[in-house]
Structure formats: C-alpha cells, structure tokens
Design brief:
Largest interface: A-B, 47 and 52 residues
Strand content of chain A: 5-15%
Oligomer: heterodimer
Largest sheet of chain B: 5 strands, mixed
Structural class of chain A: alpha+beta
CATH architecture of the largest domain in chain A: Orthogonal Bundle
Number of domains of chain B: 1
Strand order of the largest sheet of chain B: 1-34-35-36-37
Distance between the termini of chain A: 51 Å
CATH superfamily of chain B: Quinoprotein alcohol dehydrogenase-like superfamily
CATH class of the largest domain in chain A: Mainly Alpha
Strand content of chain B: 35-45%
Distance between the termini of chain B: 47 Å
CATH class of chain B: Mainly Beta
Shape of chain A: elongated
CATH superfamily of the largest domain in chain A: Cytochrome c-like domain
Structural class of chain B: mainly beta
Order of helices and strands of chain A: HHHHHEEEEEH
Largest sheet of chain A: 5 strands, antiparallel
Amino acid sequence: MKLALLLLMVATLSYSQSLGEKVFSQSCATGYCHGAKGTPAGAPRLAGRDFDQAYITSTVMRGLPGTAMPAFGSSLSREDLIAVIEYVASLNGIAHPVVNLGPGPGTAGPAGPPLSPEAERGHDLFFDAIRGFKRCSTCHEVNGVGIPVTTPITKIPADAAALRALKTPDVETATVDGESMPALIVSQGKTHELFYDLTSVPPVLRTVGPGALKVAPGNAWQHSSVIGSYNDAQLDSIIAFLKEAAASSPQ
Amino acid sequence: MRSLLFFALAATCATTNAQDAANFGATHADWPSYGGTSFSWRYSALDQINTGDIKRLVPVWQFQTGDYNENLQATPIVMDGVMYLITPRIQVFALDAASGRELWHYKYPTPRPGKPGGMTFLQNRGVAVGDGKVIFGTTDNFLVALNAKTGEEEWKVSVDDPRQCGCDITAAPLIVKDKVIVGGTGGDAAHRGYLTAFYTKNGRFAWRWYVIPGPGEKGHETWKGDSWKLGGGAPWMTGSYDPELNLVYWGTGNAGGDFNDEDRLVPGAKGKEANLYTASVVALDADTGKLRWYHQEVPDDLWDFDSAYECILMDRPINGQMRKLLVHMNKSGVTFVLDRVTGEFIGAFSTPEVQTWISGITEDGALVGRREPQAGQVVDVCPSATGAKSWNSMAYSPRTGYVYAPINEVCNDLRSASTPANEGRFHANGGFSLKLPPNRTTYSHIDAWNPITRKRIWSVPYKYILLASMLATAGDLVFTGDPEGDFFALNARTGEKLWSYQTGAGNRGSAVSYSVNGRQYIATPTGWQQAITGAQLSPLFPGENWRGGSTLIVFALPEASK
C-alpha cells in the first residue's frame, strides 16, 4: 500500500515533469530564448538560480516588463502553466512545488464549444493575413483580435448577398482643407476632432483642430467596396463564424 | 579660344556634379534621416571638432528620458535646431538642440499587447521627420504622425495586428518624397514580412511589397508547399534611397524556421537560390514598390544570418570608371559590394576573424564550405546568431573612403529541429547557445575597411563586445561607445584613440553630429540594452555589470573656442 502510494506519487511527479519539460522545450527553449533544461542560451540560465516559487510563478504568468520575457498567463492552458512552473521550480531545487495560479489565468484552455468546420474556415478568412489589408479584421475586432475601427459587430447579415448590400448609415462625408471623403466620425471635441478617413484601406485615424472638420450626413461609400477579395461562399463561411462567435461570447 | 572656354566650363560642371554626388550622403547642420541622409553614411561634413581639438570636447547638456528600464537606441533626428528623440515606451521629445530644453513631449497610450510568444520588443530606433511631421512606428504596429511644431497627433494607421502577426515596428521609418516607408519585425516568426508605404500627408496606403512572392509571382517557386505564407523575411531595419535612380534599397530578414529548412526548401534546391527574397538586398521602385533587382546574400539561410541592416550608397571609381555602389554587411559579417543600378555583384569580404560557417566566398559571391546545422545534433559555428555585427550601423567617410564597423567574435552551438509554424509565434526551428571562441583575449574590434580594395586598413581590438553604431565626421574622427560606458573618438585614418568620456551607462545607440548657430555638437544615446542581443551577450562576461539607462549626452568644444 505504502509502496503503491509512493509509486503513484513518483508516476505523478514524472508525468508532470515530462509535460513540464515538453512545454518548456516548446515555449521557452526556442530560438532567441532559453536553452534546453534551463541552460543559458539567447536568454539567461534558469537552472540552479535559487529562484523561489512565487518569483517563478509570477514571472511565467506575467512576464518581465521591459525584457523579452513574455507573459504566458493567457497563452498557455492551465495544465501547461502548472506543469512548466513546476518544471522550472524543479530546476531550482524546489522539491515539492506548490503552484497557486489563483482564479482566472490559464485562459488558453478549452473555452466555449469548438467552431464548426465552416465557421473555422470563416475564422481563417476573417483574419486571413495573405489578403493583407483586404481582410475583415482590418476594420473589425472579434474575440480580441482585429483592429476595432468600427463598433463591435452585433447584427450579423443572413447571407453573402445581405453582407454585400449592408447599409452603413454611420459613414458620413467629412471635408478637411477642401477635400471631401467618406468618414467615420469618432469625436468632435473642443480641442480636437477625430475621424477615420475611409478613402482607402486601411482606414486612417486623423486628428484635426476644432472647426477644421465639416461633416455632412451620408456618403456613397459602400461596404461591398472593401470585401471584394472574398467570394460568396467565403462570405457565407465568415457569417457562420460570426454567428458561432457571437453565440459563445460571454456578452 | 571658344572651344577652350567651353572645355573649361564643361570641366567645372563635371567637377561640381561629381562633388555633389560624392557628398550627397554627408550631413551638415541637420541630421535629417536615420542614417544621416538617405545614403546611410552616418557621416557629418562638419569639421569644427577634429583630430586637432578633440581633446577639448566636453559635455554641454544631457537629457534623461525617464524610460530607464529599457535603454536608448534611437538615432536622434535634428532639423533646424530642433532634436526629435523617441524612447522604447514611445515617448517622443522635441528638444532645443543647443540647450536640451524641452519644446514638447508626446506619450503614446499603452499599446495593445502583442501575441504571447511573438516577436514584439520594447525598443525603438528612431523617428522620421519630414513634411512638417514626426513619424514613427509603435510596439502595437501603428504608424503615427505628429505635427512637428506641436507634437499633436495628425494621423495614425494600423500596419498590422500584433495580436495576430506577433510582429511590431522597432525601426525608424524612411521618408521618400511624398511617402513614408516602414518595415516590421517577424523575421524569426511565423509571419510573411513586408514593407509598406503610406502618404505622409494623410496616412493613406500607397503600396506594400511582400518579401515572399505570392502565387504566380516570380520567386514563389523557391518556397516549398505553403511555407511561403508564414516564411518570415521581415525587413526590420531602415532602408536607403537614391533620388537620381528613384530606387529604394532595403535588406530583408532571414527565412522563418531559422535553423532547419526541411519545411521551406524545395526538394533539389540545395545550393541554389532559395526562399526568395529573404536574406537579400532588394531595390524597389520608390513610387510603386515594384521589385527592380535583388541580390540574395545567404541562399537557404540556416544560421539566422539575415540581411536586414543598412545599405550604404556611395559612388566610387572602379578600374577608372565611376560606379554607383551599394555596400551592405550581412549579419554574418560578410560584406557585399553591389552595383546599385543593376544589382550586379562586384565583390565581397568577410569581417570576423573567427569564421567557421563557411570556408569562403567565390569571386562571384557564392558561399562555399557551408557548415550547416543538423537535426538532432549540436553544430558549433562562428559567428553567432547574434551577428558578427548587430543592427547597429557602420559609418562611411568619403574623405578616407573607408567604412567603419564594429565586429563581434562570438560563436554558438546550433540546435536544429523542424517544428510547426503557428501564425504570429516565434518560429526558429531550433535554437542557439552563445559561447566565446577559444584562445582569444578580445572578443570584438572596430575596423576600417576599404570596400573597393576589400582590404582591412586598421583594426582596434576591444575585450568585450560592441553594439553601438559608428559616426564618422569630416574632422577625420570616428565615434562610438562600448558596454562599459566609454564613448570615444578614433582617428579615422589610423584608429588611434584620441578622446574618451565615461557616460555612466552602457552604449547601445547611434551617435549623431549637427550644428546650431555655427557650433558643432556630437550627441549620443546611452543605456545598455536589457532585451534580446544585449541581454543575450552579457552573460558571456559574468561579473560585468553593464548599466542600463536612458540618457542622451551632448558634447561640444568649450564656448570660447568655437
């Protein structure tokens, strides 16, 4: 019994350490960063530094501001975080690491239901870097990625035709220095006036002094003019992605 | 008589034109661009401070940015007596260049965080000034233009999403006519590198050139499968521009998946051009961004030897014929001399004393005897992935005809392993461990090279490593600094150390020279780098304490002696 318990403990420890070492080799011992098993490489040695547990946990979770050490708190799963923290602790002679991540972190773990294959395609199209600025995320942010030029997408068009025919009542006509352009007005304060110039993609956030901006309602600008890199089937996939993303969003 | 007069006139014109061309790269009262001028000489035509009076040089003002956690790498830009300086946390200062008095101050709001595990760095190497604006990149990939008089934002545009690409902008942009051109980081990340041009007037998009050609474009066939989509190559430093040819020159980054080419090399391409146009010098049409010519320096790079550094443009006679040249040092320290009209290879020379990654270079520029990393093994090569030279610039003096370069003698053990490319994540396909070459007591040197004869004229050894840029002046002086904090001047013709000043913090920046009301100044940023190359190299010298900081120190001759 005692032996069995001991064996179980050893098995647990070695399982955890091997996962930790695996995470370490994939996320820490790469390229410009640390060497294998905490040896010095691009980044400093981590083995045998007499780090204490709290320091290791906090550095892994939050990174070291002002250095190349990133925060892993939101990029690794909770399981991977605990394993890698325990691994670095073991490299520093901490025999029985007690890792307390607190509530919240480890958000890269399973979150919400996985996307359907079509929505997954839509996700990749929405953020498709190969399209350069001609992708949806040039102006729209979804789930924390993308440039939030516009307000969050709340009304999702039914299909590609509806997306192409989308009305954009917020787009107005701005006139600055005698030049008129399609614009999204951000603010017209006493000291500054801010607007997005939609003449070309990507939109440009421009700032002018008070009174320099004249705004007239409406503009001939059309949403269909900026989604030309996608065909109808692709737009349908993007719509599927937006619907599933909205359904799983905490809001 | 008449024909004689004509001849005399023609001769005068020819001389003037030749002199104009010969001096185009020199700065005068201003230091208008990252590399001095768009020829990237880092050479000032001012000679009030010279070999005769340098010993009397004293500090006259200093400016502390307050961003002491990172360091100060930026090249200050000076225009009409105003200095523009940017810090890693994107504070921009306009200072009276004669006194250091602050004219305005801008602070960028807290940037959106980048992709964890990406290639975003807290550092900034400078602003571009032109069209009445101060333009710079940010850690979250915006390009921002301020009003140069007031420091107020005029426009701001997102070049890419750091939460997806894992990249950011650390280089100073380059203003070319009505456009501003900027690159980004991501050479070692799963990301497809590019240069983007925007109109200075309103920030609108002008053109983008992808380092990696897309389907149907020439060069695309040098990428295996889909590897082109995330193949790296980001041009992360600042380019040069020749207004007469209307060509922009830029060095590109290495292919991502640095140390293992299994996933990116087309079968059978070993030993040929590969993964175009990474690790190359390219010439682009300044108006359209279209590729005019390229020269790939390291085909199928496996050592992280990118070509992202400065392109020095100079006109020099070769075999009695004036040639328009481009001199470019690869991270390996191999320096290429190209015809900048056609891209024709003219010659190359290698600067590190310990070189094992190749056994040599052929007369037509091919690398021979490549010692490549091997999957599952540790292969030791010199120089290291931190570079025989890092991003810090060389300087060129038209008076001596020499280029001045700080060269590091550091080796590394390379590990190679094929790993999947995840968009925006670091993708090195292995790693490196730095080490010092045996049987040496000095690990860097400052060299003067004649790029035409490919001869090293002089070399001054230094016991540690050197990571600051060079500055050359018409006073036949060369300035740079070291990690111990000494900022010093060498005789440009002999290398003799003529003057030195302890700045109190490590030097990892780029000094400039300018004048206000007839008084010449030398300005240098100070503060050792806490991240990436500086931090990587420091542990090679345990016990040394190379101090951080963020102070600009400005020197001049005492007032009475000007």
